[in-house]
Specification:
The chain is an alpha+beta fold. It has 5 helices and 5 strands, in the order ββαααβββαα. It has helices at 14-29, 45-48, 55-70, 105-119, 127-149; strands spanning 2-5, 8-11, 81-86, 90-95, 98-104.
Length: 150
């Protein structure tokens, strides 16, 4: 999948996007979030019912994701999102007054998916609550990566 944001072209493999959705779904579904939300991605649920996940299962889920995006039933890039690329494969991601600095390349898409999900959540959340949740999300994401890298 390719998309243009701030006059710059970005790309991500569709199955990688699906895996990013899987990570965000896990964060909310398993209550790692700071606040309690009823957030689950229906297109992820069939994968979770499998005893053993094969790469073919990821590809099947990816096809469903592609269809949702094609039908414009799912959009992970909120209007007004701004991404500034920095050295060392880092980004500053801005949405209105919310700014995340030095977001690593592997954190950017999950953060954007979580942002989009929270912006579309009903009842509507304040930008302050969304910012707090996303700060917690990045903290959880980084602590998981740190624990599993060391």
């Amino acid at each position: 999948m390719e998309f243009i944001l701030n006059s710059r072209k970005y790309s991500i493999q569709n199955h990688e996007l699906y895996i990013n959705y899987l990570m965000v779904d896990n964060y909310f579904r398993n209550r790692y979030s700071r606040y309690d939300y009823d957030i689950e991605f229906d297109f992820i649920t069939p994968l979770l019912s499998k005893e053993k996940v094969e790469f073919e299962d990821i590809l099947e889920g990816t096809e469903v994701l592609e269809e949702l995006i094609e039908k414009e039933e799912l959009n992970f890039i909120p209007m007004g999102l701004k991404i500034d690329e920095k050295p060392e494969r880092k980004f500053d991601i801005t949405y209105q007054d919310i700014v995340f600095r030095d977001v690593l390349v592997g954190e950017a898409i999950p953060l954007i998916i979580a942002l989009s999900t929270l912006l579309n959540y009903k009842p509507t959340l304040s930008l302050t609550q969304i910012e707090e949740e996303l700060e917690h999300f990045i903290g959880q994401f980084r602590s998981y990566n740190k624990e599993n890298i060391e």
